[in-house]
Design brief:
Helices cover 15% and strands 57% of the residues. The chain is α+β, with helices and mostly antiparallel strands and 120 residues long. The strands form two sheets. Strands 3-4-7-6-5 form a five-stranded antiparallel beta sheet, with no helix packed on it. Strands 1-2-9-8 form a four-stranded antiparallel beta sheet, with no helix packed on it. A hairpin with a 2-residue loop joins strand 5 and strand 6.
């Protein structure tokens, strides 16, 4: 009886692994005037968060930590990609409060997410 239960659990785990979706991977980050372009292997889950004086996106993806600066008009904006257990967070911080918009589209078998920032 125990052997049948064990075999059932193992078969269930194998089927679960086969039917689970592949994790989304952040492949490349491109800095552009007033925002970033993020490239993924396929579409991630995206959730925008308004922080006090900053703008952040929570992405249901896997990726590496990164940081840098971009310009918004004449003002510098710092950005940082942080890994967490729930995915990747992309955070933007500037001297003035920020607002942002994002939109994604499939392109050449990959997913492009463009983040555009604007100062308040």
């Amino acid at each position: 009886m125990f052997a049948l239960a064990l075999i059932g659990v193992l078969v269930g785990m194998m089927l679960g692994r086969l039917t689970a979706p592949d994790p989304v991977h952040l492949q490349r980050i491109e800095v552009r005037e007033g925002g970033l372009t993020l490239w993924f292997d396929h579409e991630p889950e995206v959730r925008a968060e308004a922080l006090e004086g900053a703008y952040a996106l929570m992405l249901g993806a896997d990726g590496q930590n990164a940081k840098g600066q971009l310009t918004l008009g004449t003002a510098p904006v710092s950005w940082k990609v942080l890994r967490s257990t729930h995915g990747v967070m992309v955070r933007f911080v500037a001297a003035r409060p920020l607002h942002g918009d994002w939109h994604g589209a499939a392109e050449d078998g990959r997913w492009r997410l463009e983040v555009s920032l604007r100062a308040e």
